[in-house]
Design goal:
The complex is a heterodimer of chains A (74) and B (553). Helix content of chain A is 59%, strand content 5%. With 74 residues, chain A is mainly alpha-helical. Chain A has a two-stranded antiparallel sheet with strand order 1-2. Chain A is rod-shaped and about 55 Å long. Chain B has 553 residues and is mostly helical. In chain B, strands 1-2 form a two-stranded antiparallel ribbon. The longest helix of chain B has 39 residues. Classes of the chains: A mainly alpha (74), B mainly alpha (553). At the A-B interface, helix 1 and helix 2 of A face helix 1, helix 8, helix 9, helix 14 and helix 15 of B.
Chain lengths: 74, 553
């Protein structure tokens, strides 16, 4: 993660990982309730926004992590 | 009202976020070696990092939830808070003021007052700012607990102590460094949590055109309904908007409030510090459409009898601030509920962390080191910053319980800010642009401006005068009176500062180099390519700002 106390990964790298983990959880929730549906009292439930938005978060997080993987001097 | 129910996925998302902010505090501690690291994040951030943190410090829940509520009550008119009420002041800060603020000797806005004027002006400003931040943090904590109790059914006391504990932990460990780190995470979470609300709302309402045209004209225009205060739902005429909101309120907040400006101070050089607010201006405009757009979706849904959507009622009145949580309940399936709830909590924690990191800096440098212990070592200052954080958090908790027993205190928060910030901006602007303003002029201008603003507020509260008495043209709304009061405080402070300066001793010009326009060279910025110049990006924001005001005239 860091190379000594004078280098650290850019903040965007950590943002990327947080988005990936949260995105995976949102996506997993979407897929789980698609397979095991429950009675949801919400509007537009047919859109399955958790699947789409989870995928967007994972993709955005992966891009941020990939392009900011090199440590920087601090 | 039933509460938002959270599944195991939603809880996991919240726990991931809370676990991360705690880890950040411990991880960054090893990079926090000097007082500069602790209080100013080592002054090594890029313009983008400082700019995102600058914006994130303004994305506290009181702002986001509150302005969405304004959108639900007043429609598009609430966008004024994101346009005329923000953009000119943000750009002015970046283009003209930051080059004087960003200086090796200056670590806070009271610190600028010390360098430009004298110690007493600094201490006056520092004490009032410290009181304001602790109070603001307490009210933010109270609002968090209220939202969690109302919409999630969580225990009031537990919500307060837990969220305060998390913020105390990571700010105590790594100061501004961890505050900025977590603010950037919070920035993305907040977008991830609220960006979907206007999108799903517009789909639900049958598309953008149908959603927009379903509202009466007074809810879809910015300026064409301001010829008279009676023409618009907020009861504000254009003079109150331009002079009161655009100058009195907006400049006080965006150019003087150290909570916001501290993020730009963390930038690695003066150009990055100047770019930080300018970068944030783009996010500010976008955020306006998302936040006010969410409120307007709530407004349109309320007016649609088939939608079944209603806001909460508190004390017989519609609680417009309930619009964001209620839209989350209406649209968000499992998983997204976790993102939405986490975003709400992140907003509150961002607001509190911002207040605490600003408070510990102002307390340590501008009160403790300035008045109590002038010879404190660097190590001792970091220790004092950590103590100040813990004490500040404890005072915030006291403030939260105080607000619980007296909820009207929340209504006074903006008033308190304008007592302090409007006179401060008067003497700071004069200090930056007029070299003969004297230290005594600044001190008396700020003190009397604050007292006059307070006196006007009390006279209105006690009904000794009507709002029309301080609002030219007799505009009678409380909000108009608030805007005009800030402008009067600014003008009175400026007048006294100028008047007293005629008769009192001025600082020698040699001591003001780098602090005042006309005595400061701008070499660093002039030598960079056009695309790196703050004025270039500020010009683009200005064009966007003008176009939006015309399109939604």
């Amino acid at each position: 993660m860091i190379d000594g106390a004078t280098q650290m990964k850019p903040i965007w790298y950590f943002v990327g990982w947080v988005l990936i983990v949260i995105g995976v959880l949102v996506l997993a929730a979407g897929l789980y309730y698609l397979i095991f549906p429950i009675d949801l009292d919400i509007a537009l439930r047919g859109l399955h926004m958790n699947i789409w938005w989870g995928a967007v978060l994972v993709l955005g997080g992966a891009l941020l992590t990939f392009f900011n993987r090199k440590p920087v001097k601090v | 009202m039933h509460t938002i129910s959270m599944t195991v996925f939603d809880w996991a998302i919240l726990l991931v976020y809370l676990g991360f902010v705690v880890w950040v505090g411990f991880y960054l501690k090893k990079f926090t070696k000097t007082d500069n690291d602790y209080f100013l994040a080592g002054r090594r951030n890029s313009a983008l990092v400082a700019g995102v943190a600058f914006m994130s410090a303004n994305m506290g829940a009181l702002e986001v939830v509150g302005y969405a509520g304004q959108g639900a009550e007043y429609g598009l008119f609430a966008l004024h808070f994101y346009l005329i009420g923000a953009i000119p002041a943000i750009l002015f800060l970046g283009v003209f003021m930051m080059r004087f603020y960003y200086n090796g000797r200056i670590k806070s806005t009271p610190g600028y007052l010390k360098e430009r004027y004298d110690e007493k002006t600094r201490v006056l400003n520092a004490i009032s700012f410290a009181v304001m931040t602790v109070l603001s943090s307490g009210i933010s904590l109270y609002a968090l607990a209220l939202v969690l109790k109302t919409f999630l059914g969580w225990n009031w006391d537990l919500s307060i102590w837990l969220s305060a504990g998390f913020v105390a932990l990571y700010i105590t460990l790594s100061g501004l460094l961890s505050a900025i780190f977590t603010e950037i995470i919070q920035f993305f979470l907040i977008w991830g949590g609220i960006l979907l609300l206007p999108i799903l709302g517009i789909i639900d309402l049958g598309g953008p055109t149908r959603a927009f045209t379903s509202l009466p004209q007074v809810y879809t225009h910015l300026w064409s309904i301001t010829a008279s205060a009676a023409d618009n739902p907020m009861k504000l005429g254009w003079p109150a908007l331009i002079f009161g909101l655009g100058f009195g309120i907006s400049f006080g907040y965006w150019t003087t409030d150290f909570l916001i400006i501290q993020r730009a101070f963390s930038a690695r050089d003066v150009r990055s510090a100047r770019m930080a607010p300018i970068i944030s201006s783009y996010f500010k405009i976008l955020l306006g459409f998302v936040v006010v757009g969410s409120g307007m979706v709530g407004l349109a849904l309320m007016r649609d009898p088939h939608s079944g959507f209603t806001l909460l009622h508190t004390g017989g009145k519609i609680n417009y601030d309930s619009v964001i949580p209620l839209l989350m309940m209406r649209f968000f399936p499992p998983g997204l509920v976790g993102v939405g709830v986490t975003a709400l909590i992140a907003m509150f924690m961002a607001g509190q962390a911002g207040n605490m990191s600003a408070f510990n800096t102002v307390w340590t440098y501008d009160i403790y080191q300035s008045v109590i212990n002038k010879k404190a070592s660097e190590k001792h200052l970091i220790w004092m910053g950590r103590v100040a954080t813990v004490v500040g958090i404890l005072l915030s908790i006291v403030g939260a319980y105080w607000a619980r027993s007296m909820p009207t205190i929340i209504d006074y928060l903006q008033a308190i800010a304008s007592w302090i910030l409007a006179p401060a901006v008067a003497v700071i602007l004069l200090g930056m642009f007029v070299k003969w303003i004297s230290p005594d002029g600044a001190f008396w201008g700020m003190l009397i401006g604050t007292l006059v603003s307070f006196a006007m507020f009390m006279a209105l509260e006690l009904r000794w005068i009507t709002p029309g008495a301080i609002a030219p043209g007799g505009e009678a709304s409380a909000m108009a009176a608030n805007f005009w009061r800030a402008l009067w405080a600014w003008l009175i402070s400026s007048g006294i500062a100028v008047g007293v300066s005629f008769f009192t001793e001025k600082r020698p010009e040699a001591e003001l180099v780098g602090l005042v326009r006309g005595l400061t060279r701008d070499d660093e910025v002039e030598q960079v390519p056009l695309l790196k110049k703050p004025i270039f990006w500020a010009s683009i924001t200005t064009v966007i700002f003008i176009i939006l005001n015309i399109v939604f005239w």
